[in-house]
Specification:
Elements: H1 9-19, H2 25-41, H3 48-63, H4 67-76, H5 81-99, H6 104-112, H7 114-121, H8 128-134, H9 143-160, H10 163-182, H11 194-216
């Protein structure tokens, strides 16, 4: 990404400073926090593990909302954490695609990262049922069938221009990679998972600025208050 690219983090930061007075507090917090992590991630040119983690935190900052629901989920234990997380970012994707009238997200997926996406979709090591199978946990039986079905669904969604489904399947894979890194399931700078970490960081590095830009272009949209808002003492 060149320094004059409209999606370069520094240019997005200038845009945020110019527009922020017109943002409601939830959007202000989401964009400010997401950009802070995006800018920090760009300083990590060689350490793909750290870059991926920082980009994922930035993604979290952008999409995480609905404080009341998030607190209920934590306290009530109604559903597994992963299910709640999946619901939140699936809803975020649907909102962004609805607002993306120029199809910028689809173009990014189709023209910029088709090869990397196919590699991730073909990689069983970032497929959650594969690990459930090896752990003999519920949901792991017949993982090969589920694996092939998910790939077919992603390819069909790409062909049909169903961007929310493509994003959902893609981020399922990235979420497994996120869990491996954040929960100590991988070695730093390991040769065993270099390709998926490198490609995952590249995909997030391209999509997160686009997500943030779309959010800033739609300040009148109802953006829920993120969890952990700023509290004045």
């Amino acid at each position: 990404m060149t320094a004059d690219d409209p999606l370069h983090p520094l240019i997005l930061k200038h845009k945020q400073r110019a527009l922020r007075d017109g943002f409601a507090l939830p959007l202000t917090l989401r964009v400010h926090r997401a950009l802070s992590w995006l800018l920090r991630a760009h300083r990590e040119e060689e350490d793909f593990d750290t870059r991926f983690i920082m980009l994922w935190i930035g993604f979290n900052a952008a999409y995480a909302g609905n404080l009341e629901r998030a607190l209920d989920d934590q306290g009530g234990g109604r559903r597994p954490e992963a299910a709640n997380e999946r619901e939140r970012f699936d809803g975020f994707f649907r909102d962004l695609v609805r607002l993306d009238t120029d199809g910028r997200i689809y173009k990014a997926l189709w023209t910029r990262f088709p090869q990397e996406i196919r590699i991730l979709l073909d990689n069983r090591f970032v497929f959650a049922p594969f690990w459930k199978h090896h752990a003999r946990s519920p949901g792991g039986a017949g993982w090969e069938i589920t694996f092939e079905a998910a790939k077919r669904a992603a390819n069909s969604a790409l062909a049909a221009g169903n961007t929310p489904v493509v994003l959902s399947i893609l981020f399922d894979r990235l979420y497994v990679l996120r869990n491996q890194l954040l929960h100590g399931g991988a070695t730093w700078n390991s040769a065993a998972n270099r390709a998926q970490v490198r490609d995952g960081a590249a995909i997030l590095d391209h999509l997160l600025p686009l997500f943030v830009d779309l959010m800033m272009d739609n300040p009148d949209e109802h953006w829920a208050m993120p969890m952990y808002p700023v509290i004045e003492e």
